User: Fold RBR-type E3 ubiquitin transferase from Cryoendolithus antarcticus.
Amino acid sequence: MADEFEEREEELSSVEAIYPEIIITNKYTASLDIKVAPSPPLLVRFVPSAPATVLKATYAQAATPTAAHIEHDVHLSHLPPLNLRVTLPDGYPAEVEAEVNIKTEHDWLPETKLDELQRQLVDLWEDLGRCQVLYSYIDHLENAASSGFSLDQSDDGCLTLPASLEPALVSFDKETKLKQFQEGTYDCGICLEPKKGTQCHKIDKCGHVFCLQCLQDCYNNSITEGAVADVCCLDPSCGQAKAGQRARKPKPLHPRELLAMGVEDSMVRRYVEMKRKKRLESDKDTVYCPREWCTKPARSRKYPPIPDDLTQYPNSDSDDENASEPKIITDDDDRLCICENPKCGMAFCKVCYKSWHGPIERCHPRNPDELSAEDKASYEYIMAHTSPCPYCRSPVQKTMGCNHMQCYQCTTHFCYLCGSWLDKDSPYQHFNKVGSECYNRLWELEEGDEGQEPEDGEGFRGARRWEQMAIEVARAADEEDARLMQQEQQVQRRQVRQDDVERAMRLPQDLVHAVEEMDDQPVEVPELERQLLGGGIVDGVAHIGIDHPAPLADPAARPPGRRRRNPFPVGPPAVNGNAGRGGAAAAVRAHERGQRPLANGRAPPRRGPNAQPAQGGHGGAGIRRRAVPEHEMEEEDRAFFDAIDERGMHGPWDPDEV
Assistant:
């Protein structure tokens, strides 16, 4: 018995010397936590619908038909340790084996695996000839833990756990990594100075190490300047092509990681907002509010709003969401959009861009060519002063320098003249290659692109050239349309003038026919033209009673034979020695003129040239004659009526001659 006592005590003391962290709770009872750090990291699949007995089930049993079948795969490098509790009973090791109890925190290791590990102790005790086996068993467990207990060799190829365990296991993995990192010393990749782990940060996605001060300065400057693409790993070798792999651009950092570096919350929020805005603008499926004072994007499940807690911001493994295919609207409910601006909140249709009209009403798409003056001016400026990136098609404008450009959005290296992709390791080989379109053209447009052609006159190539050709063709078509329209307007104006001239030439002949119908006598056209032109054609026409013309006498209705004679006496007696200056002849003249005779038998003289024509006479219309001085008209009238008076004294006369 004394030998057994000494043998058990000796084994525990030896194990304690090797594993100082072992805890001996009783004289022959001890407990030890065995670290579980599988290499390579163990694939753990978290299934949301896993039942309570998932630790005894496979993945096929966990993903039941009633479950959602949505899993999340995570590679874990550190798992909660195994808690080994061992008791050395009486008769150990010669007669009985040691008693062990194995369990894990959060119960992440399946019970089948725990039972298997406990049975391996008995097998090991038998293989060693029933000798002291405690150290060998602990070493066996450590080797099994480093290989992940061969869980990756199972039928599922991974460890299947319920989703409720994911936060605890992931958090444990990160805390363990951080603790190990802080215990070391590293050289900063920027300032190249050795720093303690507590003053450094390790990038989660690539593992490069930099000191916190350098990271904060670089990222604050990038966010302030709006260079969202620069908020990534700062190591120049990050993302370069490895053997058998293609090069990848560095991935942007998550806001959670920026906060862990010590970057201020306001700066991180600005970074998230700019990053989200950049993705919205590059996505062709983004719908904007039609209100001119708002123009904010509509709510989208693809780009959820920014939460108050930035650590809960969803992960995005890639910035290439803009490469998504255009969505075909098949459901009427998909047309409804709501502006995400809290001050607006307008509900509108994404097809017709009008207020929401309900899912029943049909609508038609808005014509994309109908641009406002501001949008059209911006579009024309971009087409004339920028070159598109060959990868993401973002417009890039050169303000100064050489023609080796780097896209601000996707960091692609390309030629500004031809749009060719350039190798970032040797970008200037493109300009030194004999026979290339851009040979010796590195420094053209050195002072910037203001829309002019390159100095050698060869012009741009690639997408920029095609865009300029399209603009020139469209401009030439617009100029041709304007020229044809101007010619058509000139022809129309010329035709209008020709019609006016022809109408004016037909006017005298029409007046001749009208006068002949009124008087039933031919009229000399030159005499009529002289009268019309003397007072103006327009004035002459204006004074013709067109609105209410008097009925014309029908020549065919007049009886044949001699005209009717004047019923008044042949001639009045002389008055004070002046023959024909009063009496009946004066009354006839006053009657024909529609005026009252004066006391001396004379009719009043004619009025000035602005006087209106008399409302009597044939046809109820008169023609204004050429303006004649008043004294000349009186002399002409006196001579005319004296001749009539003399004829009236010696023979009959016709009142129509008056």
